[in-house]
Design goal:
Blueprint: E1 4-6, E2 9-11, E3 15-17, E4 39-41, E5 58-61, E6 64-67, H1 76-87, E7 93-98, H2 103-114, E8 121-125, H3 136-139, H4 142-153, E9 159-163, H5 171-180, E10 185-188, E11 192-195, E12 197-198, E13 203-204, E14 210-214, H6 219-232, E15 237-240, H7 246-254, E16 259-262, H8 265-268, H9 272-286
The structure holds 3,4-dihydroxybenzoic acid.
């Protein structure tokens, strides 16, 4: 059995593609059999379309990727009119990621999506490192985090997932706030603030100077944060951070993640998630595990 339940959301398997790494899902239809995915987390949507930050916006580092996209996106209305009607034809969960500068904007985006058909759940981004407003100052502020969760919670019965930033001292304190204000789950981690310099030009490799670091470089950090939340807060966890192989996914599940998201690996192989799903199923068969949920939090501490 590979089914996973998070609040009211039923996933056919615990593997999701992470926000910002799979577009709105539709562009990959010819490349990936998206109906095999547990779900797709869309690129962050804002109330109005956004062109994002100036180039260069992406740099490679030895074991990760640095990006400063600045929430470039088509806006919620275009998503509802042009993307949801296509996605509805596929048997996978559509988890809409939302970003905003004001609490009221998060709320208005949810109101519009509640009137549309085909949204499975929401993931609230309170942790973008690359925008001046509505990014890290939300996700690093306990009272702002509480306010965003409590206000958005009033507007929907669908599963509400809050995406947390690792750029804080104790991520579990934020997870606790999310639980207390009624969130169904937390997803972690978002990217870590990072920087790279071209030594010939002496210029930063992304135009905004710093960007969000993702990929294998952040996996051990992400795993420690997932485990910190698992030990301290009773809320479903979606693990994210450098997951590239099925072994990585199993590590996150053993540390307490009920589901996982594959991000940077999609840029190397858009089918990475499907291989991870096959690997998880094989691991379960070989280890006589009847239900993937039995792996979750099965860590052994002597
Ligand atoms: C962006 C947003 C994020 O949440 C993140 O982790 C990295 C980049 C962005 O759009 O710039």
């Amino acid at each position: 059995k590979t089914e996973v339940i998070i609040g009211k959301l039923r996933l056919k398997n615990p593997v999701l593609v992470a926000s910002g790494t799979f577009g709105y899902g539709d562009e990959l239809i010819g490349t990936v059999d998206i109906s095999k995915l547990g779900g797709i987390v869309t690129k962050s949507l804002t109330l109005k379309p956004k062109i994002g930050n100036p180039p260069p916006r992406i740099a490679e580092t030895p074991c990760g990727m640095l990006n400063s996209i600045g929430l470039a996106n088509i806006g919620v209305d275009k998503f509802i009119n042009e993307k949801l009607p296509i996605l509805k034809n596929y048997d996978t969960a559509i988890i809409v990621n939302i970003a905003a500068k004001r609490v009221e904007d998060y709320c208005e985006i949810i109101r519009r999506l509640e009137n549309a058909e085909g949204v499975s759940a929401y993931e609230i981004n309170i942790s973008c490192p690359n925008v001046k407003e509505g990014g890290l100052e939300f996700g690093t502020n306990p009272s702002m985090t509480a306010k965003i969760v409590s206000e958005t919670r009033k507007l929907t019965d669908k599963t509400l997932i809050i995406k947390l930033t690792p750029n804080v001292t104790r991520i579990s304190e934020f997870a606790k706030i999310c639980k207390d204000e009624g969130a169904d789950a937390v997803s972690l981690i978002n990217t870590i603030v990072g920087m790279a310099i071209d030594i010939r030009t002496r210029k930063p490799k992304v135009a905004t100077v710093t960007g969000g670091l993702s990929g294998p470089a952040i996996k051990p950090i992400a795993l420690a944060k997932v485990f910190e939340v698992f030990q301290n807060v009773d809320i479903p966890i979606i693990g994210i951070g450098g997951i590239t192989t099925w072994e990585d996914a199993i590590e996150f599940m053993i540390a307490g993640a009920r589901a996982i998201q594959v991000g940077t690996a999609n840029f190397i192989d858009p089918n990475a998630s499907l291989q991870i799903i096959s690997g998880i199923i094989r691991y379960c068969e070989e280890n006589k595990i009847q239900d993937v949920n039995d792996i979750v939090g099965s860590i052994i501490l002597e």
